[in-house]
């Protein structure tokens, strides 16, 4: 009987010791032990314009997309936005990158409800927006979108 208790005690202590060795060290200030702190969220859109038409595309979005972003920024829906232009590295690479900064992931919840009135005011009815989108197909291709969180290394 004593041997069974001893074996159970040793196994229990061994499992407990192994389990505690697997946990990550506690942070003295509490919270995550990640080597970074989480920051705002960026929505990225990678765009490839047809040769020689990047200025035309930028002119188009100046009258449509820019007013939307400016109003969203004014209403604090977004923190900021940036548009980068550069050389494509190859035929399948983007030359324009649109970056929209949100305060956090939660800011994306219910985003369409907040954006639809702004977009309609700046860009017109759904039919007008569709016509604009179709027109843009002649000068650009959206290669992809990505959402990423900004981090700051500790």
Outline the structure in words.
This protein has 154 residues and is α+β, with helices and mostly antiparallel strands. The chain has four helices and four strands; from the N terminus they run H-E-H-E-E-H-H-E. The chain has helices at residues 2-22, 54-74, 111-123, 126-136, and strands spanning 36-49, 80-85, 96-102, 140-153. A four-stranded antiparallel β-sheet has the order 2-3-1-4, with helices on one face. The model is unreliable at 2-26 (pLDDT under 50).
Structure in a nutshell:
The chain is α+β, with helices and mostly antiparallel strands and 154 residues long. The protein has four helices and four strands, in the order αβαββααβ. Helix content is 43%, strand content 27%.
């Amino acid at each position: 009987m004593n041997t069974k208790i001893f074996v159970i005690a040793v196994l229990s202590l061994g499992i407990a010791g192994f389990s505690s060795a697997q946990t990550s060290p506690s942070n003295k200030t509490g919270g995550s032990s990640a080597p970074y702190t989480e920051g705002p969220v960026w929505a990225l859109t990678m765009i490839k314009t047809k040769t020689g038409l990047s200025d035309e595309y930028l002119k188009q979005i100046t009258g449509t997309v820019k007013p939307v972003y400016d109003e969203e920024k004014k209403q604090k829906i977004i923190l900021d936005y940036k548009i980068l232009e550069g050389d494509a590295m190859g035929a399948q690479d983007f030359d324009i990158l649109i970056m929209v900064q949100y305060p956090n992931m939660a800011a994306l919840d219910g985003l369409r409800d907040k954006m639809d009135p702004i977009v309609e005011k700046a860009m017109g009815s759904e039919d007008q927006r569709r016509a604009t989108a179709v027109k843009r197909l002649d000068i650009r291709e959206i290669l992809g979108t990505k959402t990423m969180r900004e981090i700051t290394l500790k």
